[in-house]
Amino acid sequence: MPNRRLNDPHPARLPRQGRAIRRHVQTLLGSVSCENSPCLKAQNPVEEAAVCMKRLFAVCFSLAVAGAPEVFGDEQSTSPYATAADFARYAMKLREQALLKVEPQVLIPTSSRPAVQRYPWKMNIVTTVFWVGEQASGNNPVPNYKSSWDYNWTANYGGTDTPDPSARRNYIPIAFVPRQNPFYCALPYNDVTHGQFKPEAPLVIPWFKQSYTGPGQSVCRHRWIAIRKGNRLCYAQWEDCGPFRTDHFQYVFGNERPKPNLNHGAGLDVSPAVRDYLGLAPTDVADWQFVEVRDVPPGPWRSYGDNNHFVLARRQSEQRVAAGGSGAAKK
Per the domain annotation, does 320 fall within a domain? Predict the structure, then answer.
């Protein structure tokens, strides 16, 4: 008897053994349909697809192995499948038809940005207060009219950032609006000396390659840090070097503790604005860590300064809007 095609439209003509096998295959494959399969009711669409594929493959394989002797064992069999390969192809065809009934799943990413790089917290660091325009004193031998990176710091800031609480309001001096971010700090390392990078700078500063703009252009200046006191968290920009040292990269970027100094081993200087936000004493203890600009949340530290990334971004946005409006008016 000639072999029938695998897609024979008249299954009733098949011999009894062939019809029995076909019904058996369809019954098994029906168990993985959208309506009956518990795998398709799972919450995770990836797991659904994986489970269904495994079950369908198992059905095809088991039938090919177990059913072959019954169908092909007797040389005088009237089975329409001449070989086990023919039967396997037929089973795979049914499998594909069952898969077409499964509704495709679309996975939507939960986040569009890469994982945030984390820097370790420096814990229990003695913290002191300093300010732009501060005069030299017993425990502050170097005046702060200029910074390690700005020889005209006081003028560029807009004046002396007085620490007197009665002369301040909303984290800034009453006398003027600062032209730089009033939330600033100092750490005891400078990556530049005599207009050139220090030899260790490219090796110890984690963001050196990404932030490099040219020879002798500091990659530490304007960097953001988070400062924590109790349950209060503040953000500030690195604008000066100290207290006392400018070479302690093992502490700033490594695991060492601050070196002893006149201010009880202080390892962090903060501005009056940071002091007021965190409620710090003139000499206190706080934690700090480096953060990326994208991880700085809304707060008063975003409000002022020509050196402030958020102020600059806001100005650029306003300029684009104004340019677009003028262009539309000309049309």
Answer: no
Rg (alpha carbons) of the chain, rounded to whole number: 36
Neighbours of 4 (CB within 10 A): 18
pLDDT digits (tens, 9 = 90+) for 224-242: 999 999 999 999 999 999 9
- Distance, CA of 220 to CA of 79 (rounded, Å): 81
* Residue written as token pair 């750490």: 187
| pLDDT tens-digit readout, 141-184 | 889 999 999 999 999 999 999 999 999 999 999 999 999 999 99
Which of 223, 255, 254, 253 is CA-nearest to residue 240? 223
Q: Which residues pair with 240 in a beta bridge?
A: 186
Judging by beta carbons within 10 Å of its beta carbon (0-12, 13-18, 19+), is residue 260 exposed, middle or buried? exposed
Q: Of all residues in the chain, what percent carry a pLDDT higher than 90?
A: 59
Q: What is the CATH number of the domain that holds 149?
A: 2.40.40.10
> Which of 25-34, 207-216, 256-265, 311-320 is predicted least confidently?
25-34
- CA 331/CA 23 separation, integer angstroms: 73
pTM above 0.70, yes or no: no
Measured CA to CA in angstroms, residue 211 lies from 38, 202, 221, 222 at distances of: 53, 11, 10, 11
Top pLDDT among 276 and 325 is at 276
Strands 283-290 and 196-197, bridge-based pairing: unpaired
Give 236's contacts (C-beta < 8 A, 6+ positions apart): 181, 183, 184, 185, 224, 225, 227, 270, 271, 273, 274, 301
Full domain range(s) for residue 215: 122-308
Could you tell me if 91 and 164 lie in one domain?
Answer: no
